Amino acid sequence: MLDAAVITFARHGYRAASMDGIAELAGVSKPLVYLYLHSKEELFSAVIRREAAALVAAVTAAVEPHAPADRQLWSGLTGFFAHTAAHPDSWAVLHQQARTQGEPFAREVAAMRAGLVDFVTELIGAAARESHCAAELPAREVAGLAHALVGAAESLAEWANVPTGPDGSDAAAPADPREAAERTAATLMNFAWTGLNRLMAGERWGAGGGGGAEPGVEPGAGVGSGVGVEPGSGIESGAESGAGAEVAERSGASG
Fold this sequence. Notes:
The chain contains ten helices and no strands.
C-alpha cells in the first residue's frame, strides 16, 4: 500500500491522489487501506516518514568511515544522488509534494533536512580541524555553509535526473547509475569544496574587488592535509583516490 501511495502521490500530487486509485494500484480493497491508515492525510504522513528515513539511511550507509572529511562528504553525496536517481517517485514526494502541502507534512521533511544539514555541518567542522584552519570559522557561518551545500545538492538532484538531449537522452551521461551519481557528486564538490578550501585557508571574498583575500593570505593558498585542494586540481584527498579519482578525471575536475 505504501509503495502504491508513493507512486500515486508523486505522479498525481497529494490533492489529486485518491484512496480508490491507491487501493487499485496496490491490489487491495479501499476499506483495507482505511483499516490500516485511516485517512489520506495519515497515509501521506506515513509515506513521508518512510521515504525520508530511507534517504537518510542511504546517505549514512554510503559515507566512508575514518576517511578524510572531504572524502566522507563526497561519498555521502554519492549515496544521496544514487538514491534519488534510483527512487525518483520517492524524491518527488519529499522534494515537491510534501514541502508544498503545509503542516504537518512540511515539518516532517524539514526534520529530515535538518538532520542532513547537521551531518554536513559536522563534516565541515572536521575538515577545518584537519586542515588546521588558518581562520576560525564561526559556528553560525559553518551552519550557513552546510545549509547552502544541502540546498545545492537538492537542486542538483533535480537537474541530474532530467534527460537533456534532443532525443530525450544525454549522450554525455554515464550509462552506469553509480558512475552518474559519483560524477554528480564530484560536480558539487568541485563547485563547493574548492571554495571551502580557500575559506579555511583564511581567504575571503570581498565586495571591494581584488579577489577579496584577507591581508596576509595569498590568493589560492592550499589548506594542507585532509582537504588539500589546489586551484584547478580537483578533489585531492577525497575524490582523487580510488573510484573518486576516475570520476574527477572524467568530469574535468583535474583541470
